[in-house]
Amino acid sequence: MDCMAIFEEKEVIDLGGKVKFPRCEVIFTGERKAATDILVKKYPDAAVIEAMVTVGDHQTATVSNYGTATAGNYGTATAANCGTANAGNFGTARAGYGGMVKAGENGRISLLYQDGIRYREMIGYVGEDGIVLNVTYKLVAGKFVKA
């Protein structure tokens, strides 16, 4: 069970990946998916960690770290680090470092990787270089492999 809370931003102490604060008002208690759905609806431009966003054809779905973005045909699905992006036919699926991607017919997939100096982008096209439609891929040693 997860909780959502409202707190005074000026009282937040950043612990490097976690935060603490002296008091808050609990505004939701329940399953994580329900909590992220509420946040995505209330704050559509915010990056909601572990959110799941699905849109139709010709639309764009964007999520933050560990989230799942799914877009229909001709759509774009973008997920941040460790996220999953799924796009339909003629769509684009992009994910950050440690992410996974899949696209339909004539789709494009893209993943970030670290070369020791900077982040780089590996791009693949469904139907070329062994990239198969509707198969989920991740990067291993700079190559797309089935996840």
What does this structure look like?
It is globular, with a radius of gyration of 17 Å. The model has no long low-confidence stretch (mean pLDDT 90). The chain folds into 2 domains: 2-42, no CATH class; 52-146, no CATH class. It has 147 residues and is mainly β. The two termini are 29 Å apart. A hairpin with a 4-residue loop joins strand 2 and strand 3 (19-20). It is 7% helix and 44% strand. The protein has one helix at 32-42, and strands spanning 2-6, 13-14, 19-20, 25-30, 52-54, 60-63, 68-71, 76-79, 84-87, 92-95, 100-103, 108-114, 119-125, 137-140, 143-146. It is built from 1 helix and 15 strands, in the order E-E-E-E-H-E-E-E-E-E-E-E-E-E-E-E. Strands 6-8-10-12-13 form a 5-stranded mixed β-sheet, with no helix packed on it. Strands 5-7-9-11 form a 4-stranded parallel β-sheet. The chain has a two-stranded antiparallel ribbon with strand order 1-4.
What key phrases describe this protein's structure?
mainly beta, four-stranded parallel sheet, single chain, five-stranded mixed sheet, 2 domains, 147 residues
Quick synopsis:
The protein is mostly beta strands and 147 residues long.
Continuous helix count: 1
Tell how many strands the DSSP assignment holds: 15
Biggest sheet: strand arrangement:
6-8-10-12-13
The total domain count is 2
* Poorly predicted runs of 5 or more residues: none
The coarse overall form would be globular
Class by SSE composition:
mainly beta
Fraction of residues in helix? under 10%
User: Terminal Cα separation, in Å?
Assistant: 29 Å
Q: What is the helix/strand order?
A: EEEEHEEEEEEEEEEE
Biggest sheet character: 5 strands, mixed
**In oligomeric terms, what are we looking at?**
single chain
Calculate the mean pLDDT score and round it: 90
What's the Cα radius of gyration?
17 Å
- Strand coverage percent: 35-45%
